[in-house]
Design goal:
Belongs to the peptidase S14 family. The protein is α/β, with parallel strands linked by helices. The protein is 47% helix and 21% strand. It has a single domain, classed as 2-enoyl-CoA Hydratase, Chain A, domain 1. The strands form two sheets. Strands 3, 4, 5, 6, 7, 8 and 9 form a seven-stranded mixed sheet that branches. It has a two-stranded antiparallel ribbon with strand order 1-2.
Length: 211
Amino acid sequence: KDNLSRCSSQFRAQALIPFVVEQTARGERSYDIFSRLLKERIVEDEVAAVVVAQLLFLEAENPDKPISLYINSPGGSVTAGMAIYDTMQYIQSPVSTLCNGQACSMGSLLLAAGEDGKRYALPNSSIMIHQPIGGAAGQASDIAIHAKEILKVRERLNKIYQKHTKKHSLEVIERAVERDYFMTAEEALEFGLIDRVLEKREIKSSDSDEN
């Protein structure tokens, strides 16, 4: 019965994922939509381990070809976000970032960490930065250890924001993240988290179009 329930749950989950059919030289080929996005070197930021694996796979496939990281995230675990951030910096492939919806907390840090000149947001996106949130319970010495650690994490994150915005002192960043700081796409552009607000996808003309 347990196996049947698990199979049923997996089937329902798969049924919610749309499939697309593509015509190739060898006939029709179907992809689930996430595999199709991966084929186009577009990565979603939903699960850190999956994102890291996708980034490493795409780099191994072609280290010179750009990767697009689409971000629509309310934030989440700092350690998970840092795993994605470190991988973005580690791989040779240039990673452009685009916020389509929201990029809050660690989502905003990943947005800012894209390739210089390739960090975008759609016009109605919402971007939010703040200091890390944490809590601890137990004996006083353990609480003190956790408090010290979260202060170190906050300092590290502030330095990353400063590195990628390139226009603010560390003191300005510290004041900005003191509380939840929400920005529109235009305000994020002014702050230095993104390089451009996109209203339409840019379509490059092919050589045949130019002739």
